[in-house]
Amino acid sequence: MIKVIRFTALILFGLTCVTANADEEAIRKALSQAMPNSKVDAVKSSVIKGLYEAAIGANIYYVSEDGKYLIMQGRLFDIAARKDLTEEKLNGTRKFAIENMSKEDMIIFKAKIPKYTVTIFTDIDCGYCRKLHSELDQYSAQGITIQYLFYPRAGKGSDSYNKAISVWCADDRNAALTAAKKDKSIPVKTCDNPIDKHMKLAEDFDVKGTPMIVTESGNILPGYLPAKQLVEALESEKVPQ
């Protein structure tokens, strides 16, 4: 259900500086004042007159032209084209977020002859995550490079979270991850790590379960997919719709 939220008096004060003829920069400023802990990445007019779309992190919000109202949940559809316009925008924000994460903050298993790259949110103790990882040779044979980000579903401080840190801090992260996914014991270690950053991105992407596959175009493929099915999905993205 679409939720239209009217701000409290304090937030309204920040937003009412936007006039009826508000431009994108004015809306950006008002949103920044109303949500100081969130970075407004982009503000653009939407396909609906008087409604603006704001990209904040990996999320898309809609703002009324007068700045008084914010639609925080909901999808914008083109009925005639049968197209989810919000999902198209979300693909772009997810693509941007992943491209701006350093490769050094990922654990990467490169294909022998790379053709595709997917980013996968994984949980060391997730059964289907382990199944996917056990088939790395099949993904590699299809030319799929896998970039792993951690999303321990049990949360910060859990056993899965601590395992993720130990894997990250290992001398050979790839080997340690493979061992951990086989339920083998690995040395307990701590160090500076990006696990919290991974989890924050997962929250921004609204990850509900693992594995969650994100394609190079920012499209979401939830759950485990065998290598051949994943290639078919990746190939279909290249076909003009």
Explain this structure to me?
By secondary structure, the chain is of the alpha+beta class. Helix content is 37%, strand content 22%. A hairpin with a 5-residue loop joins β11 and β12 (220-222). The protein starts with a strand and ends with a helix.
The N- and C-terminal alpha carbons lie at a distance of 28 Å
Sketch the major β-sheet.
Answer: 5 strands, antiparallel
Shape: globular
In round numbers, the mean pLDDT is 85
CATH topology of the largest domain: Glutaredoxin
What is the second-level CATH architecture of the largest domain?
Answer: 3-Layer(aba) Sandwich
Key traits:
single chain; 241 residues; alpha+beta; Nuclear Transport Factor 2, Chain: A; Glutaredoxin; 5-stranded antiparallel sheet; 5-stranded mixed sheet; 37% helix; disordered N terminus
Helix and strand layout, with pairings?
Layout: E1 3-6, H1 9-15, H2 24-34, E2 40-45, E3 51-56, E4 59-64, E5 69-73, E6 77-78, E7 83-84, H3 85-99, E8 107-109, E9 116-122, H4 127-134, H5 136-141, E10 144-150, H6 159-168, H7 173-181, H8 195-204, E11 212-214, E12 220-222, H9 227-238
Parallel strand pairs: 9-10
Antiparallel strand pairs: 1-5, 2-3, 3-4, 4-5, 6-7, 8-10, 9-11, 11-12
Helix pairs in contact: 1-2, 6-7
Describe this structure in a few short sentences.
The protein is of the alpha+beta class and 241 residues long. It has helices at residues 9-15, 24-34, 85-99, 127-134, 136-141, 159-168, 173-181, 195-204, 227-238, and strands at 3-6, 40-45, 51-56, 59-64, 69-73, 77-78, 83-84, 107-109, 116-122, 144-150, 212-214, 220-222.
